[in-house]
Amino acid sequence: MLSRSRALARASRSLYTTSKPHTLPRRTAICSVTPLYPALRLGGTRPFSVSSRAFQADPNNPEKKDSKKSGEPEDSEKQATNHPLPSVIPPPLSEFKPVRYDQLHPDLKVWVNYLLESDEVPEGIEERWNKLSNEHKYDLVQSITKLAKFNEIRADPMGVLRGWLGSMGSQGGNGADGKQGAGKDGKKDGSQGAGGAGGQGGYPFKLDLQTAVFLSFATWAFFKVISPGEVSREITWQEFRNTFLDKGLVEKLVVINRNKVKVYLYSDATAAAYPDSPVTSGNFFYYFSVGSVEAFERRLEDAQNELGIPSHERIPVAYKDEISWTGTILSFAPTLLVIGSIIFLSRRAGGGGQSGIFGIGKSRAKMFNEETGIKTKFKDVAGMDEAKVEIMEFVSFLKTPERFEKLGAKIPRGAILSGPPGTGKTLLAKATAGEAGVPFFSVSGSEFVEMFVGVGPSRVRDLFAKARKNTPCIIFVDEIDAIGKARSKSNFGGGNDERESTLNQLLTEMDGFNTQDQVVVLAGTNRADVLDKALMRPGRFDRHIVIDRPTMEGRKQIFQVHLKKIKTNEEMDFLSGKLAALTPGFAGADIANCVNEGALIAARQSAESVTLSHFEQAIERVIGGLEKKSLVLSPSEKRTVAYHEAGHAICGWYFEFADPLLKVSIIPRGSGALGYAQYLPAGEQYLMSVNQLMDRMAMTLGGRVSEELHFPTVTSGASDDFNKVTRMATAMVTKWGMSKEVGYLHFEDDEGKLQKPFSESTAQKIDSEVKKIVDEAYLKCKTLLTEKKHEIGLIAEELLKKEVLGREDMIRLLGKRPFADNQEFEKFFKPKETSAPPPFPTDIPPTTTETDNPTSPPA
Predict the structure, then answer these.
(1) Short-list 24, 43, 42, 44, CA closest to 33
(2) Residue 618 sits in the same domain as residue 644
(3) Are residues 567 and 660 in the same domain?
(4) Quick check: 190 and 197 in contact, CB under 8 A?
(5) pLDDT of residue 841
């Protein structure tokens, strides 16, 4: 027969060669240890899983046979006396499910009886064991090992805890067929020696702060399970007197913290009086609360007097102050939290290079590359060919630097994109991100400025640190004027200027000791005039790319890009050209808005496709605003507005250098505008003469002069006209040197200065010259409108009937304009067309003359 140790070795060897880790089903019964060890608390509601690598099988040898000859003694048999049970590492206690012994499998019962009670090996044990499944074998050995380990847990709980955490790699167990090994590093195969259960599943144990906190909590929970501590129950004074005091069961009383009284009873007497009382367990006690110690002492003395207890036999009362260590720690928690936060902030946020608490010092830049799927390409950018060529050169620098380096050229450090809002600066940067093929970091200038000191420079450092790790790359800072404004020469408020610190850090990163040639910085702004000179110098922003409003050809290209997404039956080349002629001075964003508005208007009217009329309505809405159908004018107000707009139209038609009329309307639009007239410049003009300026001012005064000629009184509708005329006349005197009295001087308007850059006498000359120029324009306008008083009536009455007049209506009523029109305009104009005609191709914004509310007070 097999010996006990040989049977155990065979069981262990079979256990270690299972094909996969097993999970104990709920219906499987394991050995119940509760009758043998009542103090052991086993629990859990789910089956445990074998996670140790010692129970994983060799995939090439699922059923490992005994390779030794029958005549040779096994090494495991030699170790049987030292290790009577397999030294496997048990799972946590909470994983065991308590069962009754009588629920065991019959074969398991035989094996358990043999291992726990019988000294003789039953006959047929080897055959019975071989018939058991691997799962049953594991259940049996795991249960027996748990029983064997229990005495160690009670004797040295901390040692067992350390063993569970670290002995998988540092302790060796019984090998199944190997020689006794050291098993120190836990990396060798445990089957070759004493590595045993530690074996291949070992890992080095490292104690850090997180592990220490976990171990502390685990130790506390472990001792709470083993030693549940005292159990108490609160009673009332009456219960205390009737149940214990009157029967003489009270040994002593202890007043805790002057508000609670702990009752100590005679255990023997209490057990005799109350056999079911929990006091007999030793850790149980009763207590009751008191509001006042003095009142408690009086009541206790009165009670003992009533019972006739002699003074030398009275119940002793002790006073004790107990402080809960958990309460003490919690009381210091807010202070410790504040101190810890201060230390953390001082080390991280104030440390410069660190990111700070919650990553407040980290850059908010978003990185894009070929995998992020930026769909915008250079082919989607139109109307800025020169700027696109400049930016494409940067992309070529980064993609093929050797082509430039072999000639000794250096890649420019950066470029700044400046221009009016909506001209496509950010769009060009997005196209660069889509075409570059290198990492692209995008960030807004306002993201560097926060309320905390040092955050801005920290984010700049973090941004460039990320960029240097991903070279070659491009950084794009949108709206850089948020941090790049010129630094002031004096600091009136004192202290530290966070914006200037951020700017200084940006200057250092762009051109300093730690500069990388493969990091290119692009920036966009519409206020290039306020940027710091140190930021604009070569070596930082080498290229200054100005993106202005597109020309007529540029607008046509932009319309073609946006019209590709619109369903329309119009001929694309003609439609885009005519819309470009209708929208002089429009930027790319305005064009995109017009196209979208046209599609919305068509959808609102349930049209099948978007037509030219829909786009014309959209242009009117963008220029003049939304029609105010709810604003109904009285007949007298409507007549005044009609004659006011007719005066503007006549001046624009008969003055040579005035802008020709495109459309005039007396329908209220926008905020406070009761009518408007749209004029188109006669051509692309970059210089203005005195005659041109005088004609423009005379046309602007046409509305007020028309009111004077046709009504007994005037209204406040010309306030905006006077503002425009005054600004033009002032510029002629103070900026353009068109006044002989003042001379050839230039006085720049600076709202930041408290005093004007000229003397009082010069100011009087400026005022008189401005008035002289305005009076001259007024006289010129009045002379013309007096001659054309009949024509004003024709236009005004037609406006009252139709409310909207176009260029064709003006030709029908007044005849052809006496001055030559731009030929580029005529090719987009159809003679039979009744809608608003297209304008001249020009880059000067349309002049919109609005009639304010006549009922508002005069300007």
Answers:
(1) 42
(2) no
(3) no
(4) yes
(5) 42
Which residue is listed with tokens 């290209």? 557
Total tally of structural domains belonging to the chain: 4
Q: What whole-number distance in Å separates Cα of residue 706 and Cα of residue 315?
A: 115
Q: What is the DSSP letter of 241?
A: I
Q: Which residue in the block uniquely carries the two structure tokens 């990185």?
A: 367
Give the per-residue SS3 of 812-825: HHHCCCCCCCCHHH
> What is the 3-state composition of the chain as percent helix, strand, coil, each rounded to the nearest 5?
50, 10, 40
760 catalytic, yes or no?
Answer: no
Would you say residue 178 lies in a domain?
A: no
Tokens 């004797």 correspond to 155
Q: What is the DSSP string of 536-552?
A: HSTTTS-EEEE-----H
Geometric angle at alpha carbon 769, from 766 and 773, rounded to 5° = 140
Positive/negative CA dihedral, 599, 602, 603, 604: positive
Angle, helices 760-787 vs 635-654, to 10°: value is 100
pLDDT digits (tens, 9 = 90+) for 444-461: 888 888 777 778 888 898
Shared-domain flag, residues 526 and 570: no
Domain at 614, CATH number: 1.10.8.60
Same domain? For 564 and 510 the reply is no
Q: What is residue 60's predicted lDDT score, i.e. its pLDDT? A: 43
Q: Which of 598, 624, 650 is the last residue of a domain?
A: 624
Contacts with 843 (C-beta within 8 Å, 6 or more apart), sequence order? 549, 550, 551, 552, 584, 585, 684
Residue 605 included in any domain:
yes
- Helices of type H across 45-195: 75-78, 106-116, 125-131, 134-155, 157-170
Range in 45-49, 763-767, 776-780, 794-798 the model is least confident about:
45-49
Distances (CA, A) of 298 to 293, 294, 295: 9, 6, 5
The backbone torsions φ and ψ at residue 286, rounded to the nearest 5 degrees and listed phi first, read: -105, 155
Tokens of 419: 């221009």
Considering the domain architecture, whether residues 430 and 513 belong to the same structural domain is answered as: yes
In contact, 487 and 505? CB cutoff 8 Å = no
Three-class SS of residue 29?
coil
Report the alpha-carbon distance of residue 842 to residue 123 in Å, rounded.
Answer: 112
Does one domain contain both 599 and 744?
Answer: no
Closest CA to 52 of 79, 86, 83: 86
* Reported confidence tier of residue 857, pLDDT bands at 50, 70, 90: very low
Strand-strand pairing, 804-806 and 661-665: antiparallel
Residues 620 and 672 in one domain: no
Residues 524 and 565 in one domain: no
For residue 296, is it within any domain? yes
- Catalytic residue among 645, 769, 791, 850, which? 645
Between strands 284-289 and 260-265, the pairing is antiparallel
Q: How far is CA 145 from CA 53, 87, 91, 381, in A?
A: 17, 7, 11, 76
Least confident of 208-212, 350-354, 712-716, 785-789: 350-354
What range does the domain containing 790 cover?
Answer: 635-827
The answer to whether residues 474 and 439 touch, using CB atoms and an 8 Å cutoff, is yes
Q: Which candidate, 329, 89, 320, 146, places its Cα nearest to that of 220?
A: 329
- Compute the Cα dihedral for 697, 703, 706, 708 and give only its sign: negative
